[in-house]
Amino acid sequence: MTKSKSARQRSEQSTAKAAPEAASLSTVLTSVSGVAEQSLRAMLASLPAIQIVGTASGCLSALQLVRDRQVDLVVIDANLPFEDVQVFLQQLRRDGLAIHALVLAATSGQVREALNAGADIALRRDASLGQLGAAVDTLNHARFADEPEPGSEVLTNA
What is the pTM of this model? Predict the structure, then answer.
């Protein structure tokens, strides 16, 4: 019986949050052009929470794109020089841009370094579509965390 109540409460929470979650994250993909970029673009395009609005082949062009388009998310691929990725993440934070950064790194060490440099989420490049989707959903939820909805205090304390 308790399980049914919990399931019902989660269902009500999902319904209460459905409208904001349906919105997609305007996204810039940062990746070296080629097969890896095309594959990543296809994966991201299959996620309902993503709307790709631009692609940059390097961190400098990505920085200009995120400034110009005021996007919600930048996805940074592991095929870029990792030192450039670290500097890019640090610059995003220095600029105070309200943008989430998801890094797909080549190694577990780079995952840790990306998080230390300011990435919101970092995954191994070989992460599954499910893991990538869960990461994007987490960032999409976080986008609305600072915008309380009427009655949201009841949901968070439940």
Answer: 0.76
